[in-house]
Amino acid sequence: MARPGLFRSIFGRVTLSALLVSLLSTLALFLVVRQIVENDGRAMLAREVDTDLAGLADIYVSGGSDELKARIADRFVVHRQDGERVWYLLADDAGRPIAGNLRRWPEIAPEVSEARFVPLPDGERMFARATRLGPGMRLVVGRSDYRGQGLLARLAMAFATAGALIAGLSLVAGHFAARRLRSRVEAVNATFAAVRAGHIEARVPGAGDSDELTELAANTNAMLDQVERLIEAQRAVSDQTAHEIRTPLMHLDTRILKAMEATGDDLLLRTLDQSRDEIRGVVRLLDSLLDIAGTQAMRGDMRGLAEINLSEIAENLGDLYGASAEELGIGFHARIAPGVTLRADAMQMMRLMSNLLDNGFKYVPCGGSVSLELSDGPHIVVQDDGPGIPASDRERVFERYVRLDDSAGGGHGLGLSLALAIAQRHGLSLHVEDAAPGARFVVQPEEGS
């Protein structure tokens, strides 16, 4: 049996689920850490900007605007070791620059001492706070966030690397775990396949661990043990039933025969002869029922079967039925491919084909024709040009005791039932088609076998 694809296999889905969970967990952790780092970085920038702004406000209060402009200019001279940039703008109420390195007032409200990230014309952004120093004077102080952005970039790289590592480890661990589980499940499936192929003695090997799959293996073996016991019991009951019923009937037939030899009464002889015919009919019925039951019980059981040459069996049947067809005035045609073989019971396969041929000869009138065809597969076709079988009855004809036309002769309606049981025992299917006119019985390997 072909293995299912990755997304159809439960083990593949479990592995992919574990991978997805690990990746989502890593992503969620990264988002949480990133938010914490962003909040801490913003708080640090706010403290730094607020400290600088408070100092400049004190300078303005104590020294006036000229002193404030001088201190702002001094700040541009200082070289920052961390590489961060600073921005200042001292402006009047109309936003016209008085001092600083900003050309125009950013979109930030000094009336409420607003603090936030502000985009700059060159595409950069700064964290700034603005305040009103006095009548006609306002000040904004800003800082870049290179350190914070760099930290976030390194954090993203670290989590990406960790995520890739976790994903790889999850895949490897999931692969080995899934492969081990798959091998144990496949052992159970292989056992069922072996039993289905006829090795009823096959059992699941011990899994070793005390887990659910070990319990499954144990239950599977227990079930197969029970099935094997039931099959053996059925065989024993069938054999015993056949012996217990057939033997008294044969003894009764013998006593009737002795009674016939001892009497000269013609009426009594005819009555006794009819009784013997009925006894033989009951024996044949019993044999057919036991054959059907026994064959159905051995469905898929390949023990006792051997490689046989179906072509030889079909050719022998063709010769036999060809001679009978001439006597009945029926045309018979056999097309037998050479070298067709099958692991089967030779007598049962002969009975399968002969039952189908008997059915054809029974319903074909004088002047009609019956054909037997055998090809590789094996593919067996028995076709006649008789009245055919209505579509509504094409499945029912294989049931026990079903006879569509009682006028076609004796019988108990078990021949096709036995043919179906024999076909199924050997992993074959049997169905009937419309031959237009007549019926076509087709035997071929079951689907999936």
Question: Which features characterize this protein?
Answer:
single chain, 449 residues, alpha+beta, Beta-Lactamase, Helix Hairpins, Heat Shock Protein 90, five-stranded antiparallel sheet, five-stranded mixed sheet, 7 helices, transmembrane helix, transmembrane, membrane
**Helix count?**
7
CATH secondary-structure class of the largest domain:
Alpha Beta
Shape: rod-shaped
Distance between the termini: 10 Å
Helix content range: 55-70%
CATH architecture of the largest domain: 2-Layer Sandwich
Question: Would you mind describing this structure in some detail?
Answer:
This protein has 449 residues and is α+β, with helices and mostly antiparallel strands. The protein has three domains: 10-150, PAS domain (Beta-Lactamase); 212-297, Helix Hairpins (Orthogonal Bundle); 306-445, Heat Shock Protein 90 (2-Layer Sandwich), CATH 3.30.565.10. Helices cover 56% and strands 16% of the residues. The protein has a five-stranded antiparallel sheet, with helices on one face. A five-stranded mixed sheet has the order 7-9-10-12-11, covered by helices on one side. The protein has a two-stranded antiparallel ribbon with strand order 6-8. The radius of gyration is 48 Å and the shape is rod-shaped. The protein starts with 9 loop residues before the first helix and ends with a strand.
